[in-house]
Design goal:
- This protein is α+β, with helices and mostly antiparallel strands.
- 39% of the residues lie in helices and 18% in strands.
- α2 packs antiparallel against α3.
- The chain starts with 7 loop residues before the first strand and ends with a helix.
- Pfam families: FHA.
- This is FHA domain-containing protein.
Length: 259
């Protein structure tokens, strides 16, 4: 089962990001699909609801509000978005694009480059994991998050296979962050990436996950549940999903999922 082609995009800060179908949180927290490092943005500020035919925004009773074309939206109400609309969340202005011909989607590495300082010499994507690990070793968690989040957000809306160098580097980054911070939030992102794209998780990633889970008691969010459901759907659609993978994900779900 392949991922559906995104029909909606958001443009912000000179970048364009495709929106996969589903519900996506926007806010300051690292487990949000779209993370904004802005003190005017609530931890969980808004939610984007994306289907094949429509895009809606829901303000989650944020402190400073969500604005559509200059008008503040009511809380906990889904509002339809169309091409050309502008959302204001905190200090960020987000343009809505519904026609793929209007703006090409950035290559994941191009968008990541824009988050990196001009004097940071890197070769993409082979060194991205090293950048994260270097930041973690220096205790610069926010810097590590900046690299990993930029890449993850782009990959959510980009169509790449599981063995693509960018995908592999991103997953390694997220697991490294989980191990260093003992936070299951980063593993939730690993599972969400695999669910969105219908990736079959390779054995080496399973083993890395087991190592990270030695220090983590719970995986928040719905990524693990979504991936388990995705694998079942893939199997029903005739995809050869390894039984070992199915049983391992079910084991993870029983041990680390749930509220």
């Amino acid at each position: 089962m392949g991922a559906a082609v995104p029909q909606f995009k958001i443009k912000f800060g000179g970048r364009t990001l495709s929106l996969p179908t589903g519900s996506h949180l926007v806010g300051r927290m690292s487990d949000c699909f779209f993370t904004l490092d802005d003190d005017l943005t609530s931890r969980y500020h808004a939610r984007l609801h994306v289907s094949a035919s429509e895009l809606q925004v829901e303000d989650l009773d944020s402190s400073n509000g969500t604005f559509l074309n200059g008008q503040r939206l009511p809380g906990r109400v889904k509002t339809q978005l169309v091409h050309g609309d502008n959302l204001k969340i905190g200090r960020e202005i987000i343009a809505i694009i519904s026609d793929a011909s209007q703006a090409p989607v950035d290559d994941p590495m191009d968008s990541l480059r824009k988050t990196i300082g001009p004097h940071e010499e890197t070769q993409f994507p082979s060194l991205i994991s090293q950048l994260v690990q270097k930041s973690l070793n220096m205790g610069k968690i926010k810097e590590a998050e900046r690299y990993a989040l930029a890449l993850t957000n782009q990959l959510m809306g980009s169509s790449v296979p599981v063995d693509h160098p960018t995908a592999k580097s991103c997953v390694v980054c997220l697991i490294a962050l989980a191990q260093k911070s003992s936070s299951g939030v980063w593993l939730d992102r690993v599972f969400r990436l695999h669910a969105v794209h219908g990736w079959l998780m390779p054995d080496e990633i399973i083993e890395q996950l087991r190592g990270a889970l030695d220090r983590i008691t719970r995986i928040p969010g719905t990524g693990l549940e979504d991936y388990e459901r995705t694998l079942r759907e893939m199997a029903r659609d005739g995809v050869d999903v390894p039984r070992g993978l199915m049983s391992t994900i079910a084991e993870f779900s029983d041990a680390f999922g749930g509220p």
